[in-house]
Write a structure and sequence with these properties.
Layout lengths: L3 H4 L6 H18 L7 H11 L6 H12 L8 H4 L1
Helix pairs in contact: 2-3, 2-4, 3-4
Length: 80
């Protein structure tokens, strides 16, 4: 039953789906004393952290907290 509310959210695009996955990873990190980030989870966080979008910032923060890795995006001017 853990993460029940989070998993009941209605998502309408890939960014929202990825945000829910990232939040589930973070909740596992917070609630499991012996938590180890899997390769799949790390790949998910890295992939979403390297994308622009307001919800992807959460993945960058989660990645920093769990692994210490800091993902910096190029400036918006460079992306245009």
């Amino acid at each position: 039953m853990k993460h029940f509310y989070l998993n009941q959210l209605t998502t309408v695009n890939a960014e929202e789906i990825n945000s829910v996955i990232s939040q589930n990873i973070y909740l596992e990190f917070l609630t499991q004393e012996d938590f180890e980030l899997s390769e799949t989870q790390l790949t998910h966080l890295m992939n979403t952290s390297n994308q622009y979008g307001p919800l992807n910032g959460y993945s960058r923060s989660i990645l920093k907290v769990i692994t210490g890795k800091n993902v910096l995006l190029p400036s918006f001017e460079a992306a245009e």
